[in-house]
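If I may wish for something, please walk me through the protein I am sending here so I can picture the backbone:
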Amino acid sequence: MIKRRKSKQLNIGNVKIGGDALISVQSMCNTDTRDVSATLYQINEMAERGCELVRLAVLNKDAAAAIKDIVKNSPLPLIADIHFDYRLAIECINNGIDALRLNPGNIGKRENVEKVVALAKQQNIPIRIGVNAGSLEKDLQDKDIPLSEKMVLSALGHIKILEDLDFDLIKVSLKSSDVLTTIEAYRSIADKIPYPLHLGVTEAGTMRGGLIKSSVGLGTLLAEGIGDTIRVSLTENPVEEVTAGFDILKSLNLREKGVNFVSCPTCGRTQIDLIKLAKQVEEKFKNLNKPITIATMGCAVNGPGEAKHADFGIAGGIGEGYVFKKGEIVARVPEDKLIEKLEEVILKSSV
């Protein structure tokens, strides 16, 4: 069992972050925040996939104004992503936003920071200090130290600004597009601060590369007990980020939300189109919100036994296959009826 790093717990809307709370999965809309209907449509798509927090880019006054209607109709807590203009942060808080993502050091004069923090404190609005390796302060960029150390120093400097203002509803992220830099930065800061950590490998890439980088980076840290909320950054529909996030957590037994899919690799014993079948099974049951494991196996002889840890599964033969439950065969059907029969067995079961 993974021993989680202890951190201060805070609330973003109705979602608890840190402490003994489950590690939450979040994503970010790629819509124009000014387009309320398109943004809400995407938020609802992510909610259906299990997303628990959504971040919105707030680039200007019109986007900040749109936050009011989005918050009013959103099924999920929302985080405003703000850079440079403190007035946007204030308007978002006044319009009901649940949390902010910003860097106190890039929103101008001390008095501007104080205005944002005073209102956030009054409304119990958490602030995520989001440090990115590509946008560090000039004085840190010039230091002859590893990039991960520069990121930690940046985060600690921003944290001090908030702590000096007696504000501790803080969440921290230190993201790089380089996996090892990201891991080193989070490891370094984990025992230096009491605040919850938001994990992510930024600019990770498209589906294939992004999944690999995020799985290695986030998986390594999560296995060490580091991390309280995650985003898998992909150049893809944000809904896919949500699925990937839960898959990473499920692989480490940190969450049980939704189906855990397993399937064997193809080999010479396979007498069925296993690749196609496995993809069909994932597609069929991707929205099934049951904490179960479904296996797709290519060999009718060894399949049920090798996947006896699975709650349900199918194993192929020559033009037919078997449906099994907890390693025991419960039906033998033609190949084109396998998924239909599997669904029938799952829906009838109390598992």
